[in-house]
FGGY-family carbohydrate kinase (Streptomyces millisiae), 537 residues
Amino acid sequence: MAPRYVIGVDLGTSGARTVLATTGGRILGHETARTRLHLLPGGGAEQDPDDWWAAIRDTLRRLLNRRLAPVGDIAAICLSAQWGGTVPVDAEGHHLHRALLWMDGRGAEHSRRLAGGAPRIPGTGYHALRLARWIARSGGAPTLTGKDPVGQTQFLKVARPEVYERTAYLLDVPEYLTMRLTGRPVAGHDTVALRWCTDNRTPGAVRYDERLLRLSGLPRDKLPELVEPATVVGPIRPAVAAELGLGEHVQVAAGTGDTTAAAIGAGAVLPYEGHLCVGTSAWLSCHVPRKKTDAWHNVAALPSVVPGSYWVATVQDVAGKGIDWLVGNVLGPDAGPSGGEPDPGAREEILRRLNRLAATAPPGSNGVVFTPWLNGERTPVDDPTVRGGWFNVSLTTTRADLARSTFEGIALNARWLNESVERFTGRAFPHLNFIGGGASSPFWCQAMADVLGRTIRQVEEPALANARGAALIAAVALGELDWPDIAERVAIAAEFTPDPANRLVYDRAYATFRSVYRRTRGIYAAVNAEPRPGRAR
């Protein structure tokens, strides 16, 4: 038999990565394209789904034009994507509004109305009885920040009623892309989870729950059909196949979230095998055999793409985006072309220079501590008003200190994540498979190892992990690969062990980091609170 190939797509907030791989997981080639992010007043974050599609089409066509494999032998495609967003579409799958992203918090007041109130659980802001009902069946609850499909749906209903009324389906990003490929409005058991309206107590038997639908304020008639993850939804639509340059025989596997695909692409498939991803945002996760929730630290075990498993859901709101912010707004015109987004080659050179600059400062950045909460935080504190910045800056602070402390601050927050996850699972990670664009930097790999006190295993081609995971899921959906085979198909490029000489300096920096949050969160809450009518701010 002729070899067969699969396409894996990773659509992040920053852009699209598309890979062509064998059904055994070997990547033959990849292409990337950037997408535009629209940040709006009041905590809005949107993207145009046509920009997503253009990026996917562009990367796929460029990849196919390289003739790395016969197009007729490409058997399946799977798309992983940022999720926790909302795309309102009509019955044909055409979007009716720009997508509201995972970082869009304009529905916060509605989420608080649905999930808050008395009797309240101290320290959480949640209504005790409602939270208990959500957690018992779904494993989690709508975030009070509004940054999930519950808050986003309520925002559309109240602020965009004309869009809401015309909406046939409210889709998350992976579901929108799957519908665009196949015409079917479906959600995997994994991607539906952040609506907090499904009974997730039995893996493989996830279903909508009428009581949870009412609690979450979600209309059942506007939600997609549920399907099992890593299964074939159907063949690609002929017109779409022609547009993308694929054959009409190509099968489409159910789309999945970037976090679930990343675990597969990191090779962390077995229970309690941890992985850390640093992209625009960050997360630290592993698969676990049972549903569990830690509402105080915003950690929950949600249905996984792997049969019979859950995955530990966490999210650090700003990670690599903090490095982009540093380059674009702090380091000045020497960092890159003035006034515009650098092309990919220039951007890579900028990041190489930034790494070299940061490496010239000593571990601990001469006492400067950076807090990366530039858009609030999600785990282990669900806090939309906290903000980032540098602490302990003096006249002797250098550009190198500012640069290194930014890398270290994101790592310090990852240590905070790691503590929460290890407490959640009841065991320490001997190592973490490191993926995402941040894992491409050996400097950052070592900093992560030193700050977290854990061995960091840099996955080969770490920036392609999400797309690799999507390709592996497509191979599983075809029946060409079994789940236990995946770990051996993902290579580890290098291992970084903690340097004992740096332990004390990073323990001290971490204590300072935690103290900064405790002592300033009230100030940030007051400064960034929404002003009330008739009340001076």
User: Anything to note?
Assistant: The domain at 320-461+494-526 is CATH 3.30.420.40 (Nucleotidyltransferase; domain 5). The first strand starts at residue 5 and ends at 11. Residues 399-425 form the longest helix (27 residues). The radius of gyration is 22 Å.
